[in-house]
Specification:
45 residues; mainly beta; three-stranded antiparallel β-sheet; 0% helix; flat; A-macroglobulin_rcpt-bd_sf
Length: 45
């Protein structure tokens, strides 16, 4: 089975990305009810 991630964007923000909260390898969107697992090497924002 293939692991896939979905990235969400905010239509009104200049850079388009949603705010997120990360703890270890799990990130959660701070603005919406979504979460995804962060790949190694992905920068935290």
């Amino acid at each position: 089975m293939e692991n896939r991630c979905m990235k969400f964007y905010h239509p009104e923000k200049k850079n388009g990305t949603l705010n997120r909260i990360c703890h270890e390898d799990v990130c959660r969107c701070a603005e919406e009810n979504c979460s995804y697992q962060r790949k190694q090497g992905t920068e935290r924002k």
